[in-house]
Specification:
mainly alpha, 26 helices, about 75% helix
C-alpha cells in the first residue's frame, strides 16, 4: 500500500483527476446543468406520477403478508428450521453440550461469509473444472447451513416478505414451466439451475444482517472480477485464435481473438463484467480508507480493460447504459462530464475496437443479421403459447419449432436459444413469466431506492446493483444472458445485494439511535 501511495504515476493521476474535477465543478456548464437539474427537472420530477409511486409503500407488502399464498410460502420456506428449533428446545442441554453442534452453529451464523466464498468460486473456477451441478450443490449447501443455524435461533428465518411477492410469483412461474412442459425431465434440469440462482438471492437477503457483511460480499465479487480479468489479460498475451462462430471477419476483418477468461464464451464474460463493475464502483464510493479506494478503483480499471478485450458489442452498449444510470442515481451532475470524458477517450481506443463498434451500424454483419429470423420465429411461437409458454429450457424452446414453418432447420443448423433474454422468457414461460420477472426487478429497484433515500452508505450498493442489472439486461436485448448458469447465479446474486441493502436500511430505520450500527 505504501508503494501505491508513493508512486509517482499514481500521485500524478490523482492530481490530474482532482484538477479536472475542480475545473468541472467551477465551470459555467456545470453550474448551468446543476441549476437545470435542481431547479427545473428535479422539481418537475418530484411531482410526477413515477416519483410519487416510488415514494409510496404501496399495497404489495401488506397484501403479501395477509394473502394465503404469502402465508403458505412463508410456512413452507421456514418449516425445516421451525422443526429443528422445536427439537432443539426439547433437548437443549444435549445440543449445547455437543462440540460438533456448537461448531456447526458457529459456522451457520457465518452464512454470509460462506456465501462470499461461493460467489468468488463462481467467478474464478475455470470452465474446464466447473460443472453446473457444483452450483446446485453449493446453493443447497448454503441453504442447509442457514437452516441449521436456525435450529438454535428462533429469529433466523427466511425473509420471504423482504424478497417481495412478485419474486415468489416469478419462482412459481418457473415451477409451472416444468409442469406444463412437453419434456418434463429436460425442463427439470433447467429448473434446478433456476432454483440454485434464486436460492442464492434468498440466502443473501435472509443472512446479511450488517453493512460489513454486505460490503464483504461486494468485495469478494470485486476480487473475482480482478482474478478473472487478469486471467483474460494472460489469455490475450498468450494469443487467442479467432473463433469464426463469434466473429464475422467480413464486417470486422481486424478483430483479434476474443478473451473469454474462465467462462468459455467472450459474451458471457463481458456480460458478467457489465453486471459487477457498477458494484465495484459502489464499493469505491463506500470505501473510507484511501488504500481500499485505490484497490476498488484499480478493480474498475482492470475490469474495463478486460471488457474491451472481449470485443462484445452488446456488452459495450450495456456498460455505457450501466455507467450512465449509475452516475444519474449517484450524482446526476456528473453525467455530462462523464460523456465529455468518454468522447475525449475515443481517439485513444485501438482501431480494432473502433471498427468493431462501427460494425454495429454497417448492416452487413452476419451475426447481427442472423438474429432477425430467430426473433420472428420466437414471436410467432409466443403467439401460439402466449400465456404460459412451451416449457423451461433452451432445447425445448428450439425443439418447439419442429413441425412449424416459423424457422427453416433444413440447413442442419439449430440455434441454441433466441438471442434475446426477454423473448426467451416469453417463449419459455409466456406473458405471465415475463411480467413477474419485470415486476420482481421493478419492485426491487423501488424498494432499494425508497429505503435508502438519504443514506449514502447503503445508497451506493443499491445504485450499483440497479445499474449492473439494467446493464446486463441491455446486453440481454441482443443475447440470452442466462445461457451459462453461472451468469444466472451472479444475476440473482446482484439482485440479492439490492434487496439486502434495502432490508438493512429498513431495519436500521426502525432502530433507536443507540441501537444503530456505526458507519465504518
Amino acid at each position: 500500500m505504501e508503494l501505491i501511495r508513493t508512486s509517482v504515476i499514481c500521485c500524478a493521476l490523482a492530481r490530474a483527476w482532482g484538477a479536472l474535477a475542480a475545473a468541472w465543478r467551477s465551470s459555467a456548464l456545470c453550474r448551468g446543468l446543476t441549476a437545470f437539474f435542481d431547479d427545473i427537472l428535479l422539481r418537475w420530477a418530484s411531482g410526477s406520477v413515477i416519483c410519487r409511486w416510488f415514494s409510496k409503500d404501496g399495497w404489495m407488502g401488506p397484501a403479501w403478508r395477509t394473502s394465503l399464498f404469502g402465508r403458505l410460502v412463508t410456512w413452507v420456506a421456514n418449516l425445516i428450521p421451525s422443526i429443528l428449533h422445536w427439537i432443539y428446545r426439547r433437548a437443549k442441554g444435549l445440543f449445547d453440550g455437543s462440540l460438533f453442534c456448537r461448531l456447526t452453529y458457529a459456522i451457520g451464523d457465518q452464512t454470509a461469509v460462506l456465501t462470499s466464498w461461493v460467489v468468488l468460486a463462481i467467478l474464478v473456477v475455470p470452465h474446464d473444472l466447473w460443472n453446473n451441478l457444483y452450483g446446485v450443490i453449493l446453493a443447497f449447501l448454503l441453504l442447509a447451513v442457514f437452516y441449521w443455524a436456525g435450529m438454535r435461533r428462533a429469529d433466523w428465518r427466511v425473509r420471504t416478505g423482504a424478497m417481495g411477492g412478485t419474486f415468489w410469483l416469478y419462482a412459481l412461474t418457473v415451477a409451472l414451466a416444468v409442469v406444463l412442459s412437453n419434456s418434463k425431465m429436460e425442463s427439470l434440469r433447467y429448473f434446478l439451475f433456476h432454483v440454485m440462482a434464486l436460492l442464492l438471492a434468498v440466502v443473501i437477503v435472509s443472512s446479511v444482517t450488517k453493512k460489513a457483511e454486505l460490503l464483504r460480499l461486494m468485495a469478494f465479487a470485486a476480487v473475482g472480477v480482478v482474478v478473472s480479468s487478469l486471467y483474460g489479460f494472460w489469455q490475450k498475451i498468450q494469443g487467442i485464435d479467432v473463433n469464426l462462430s463469434t466473429v464475422d471477419l467480413s464486417a470486422s476483418p481486424d478483430t483479434p481473438g476474443r478473451v473469454d477468461s474462465f467462462f468459455n464464451n467472450p459474451n458471457t464474460f463481458a456480460q458478467i463484467l457489465v453486471l459487477l463493475l457498477p458494484l465495484c464502483c459502489a464499493l469505491f464510493l463506500c470505501s473510507r480508507r484511501w488504500w481500499t479506494k485505490a484497490l476498488a478503483g484499480l478493480t474498475v480499471l482492470v475490469g474495463v480493460g478486460a471488457l474491451l478485450t472481449t470485443y462484445s458489442r452488446a456488452s459495450w452498449v450495456g456498460m455505457a447504459a450501466a455507467i450512465l444510470l449509475f452516475c444519474f442515481l449517484v450524482n446526476r451532475k456528473s453525467i455530462f462530464f462523464l460523456i465529455l470524458l468518454a468522447l475525449a477517450a475515443v481517439p485513444f481506443l485501438p482501431e480494432s475496437v473502433l471498427n468493431r463498434i462501427l460494425s454495429i451500424f454497417s448492416g452487413s454483419d452476419e451475426s447481427i443479421g442472423s438474429r432477425f429470423p430467430i426473433y420472428r420465429a420466437g414471436l410467432q411461437l409466443f403467439q401460439d403459447h402466449w400465456l404460459m409458454g412451451v416449457g423451461l429450457g433452451d432445447e425445448i424452446t428450439t425443439a418447439a419449432l419442429d413441425g412449424t414453418n416459423y424457422y427453416n432447420f433444413s440447413s442442419g443448423f439449430r440455434f441454441v436459444h433466441y438471442h434475446n433474454t426477454f423473448l426467451q422468457i416469453m417463449v419459455e414461460r409466456g406473458l405471465v413469466g415475463l411480467l413477474t420477472f419485470l415486476g420482481t426487478l421493478i419492485w426491487g429497484a423501488k424498494e432499494g431506492l425508497k429505503r435508502t433515500f438519504g443514506r449514502k452508505d447503503l445508497r451506493y450498493p443499491v445504485c450499483g446493483a440497479i445499474a449492473g442489472l439494467v446493464g446486463m439486461l441491455v446486453c440481454g436485448m441482443g443475447d440470452y444472458i442466462w445461457y451459462y448458469p453461472r451468469a444466472m447465479m451472479l444475476f440473482w446474486f446482484v439482485f440479492g445485494i439490492l434487496v439486502a441493502a434495502a432490508r438493512l436500511a429498513k431495519q436500521e430505520a426502525d432502530l433507536t439511535p443507540a441501537e444503530k450500527e456505526p458507519t465504518p
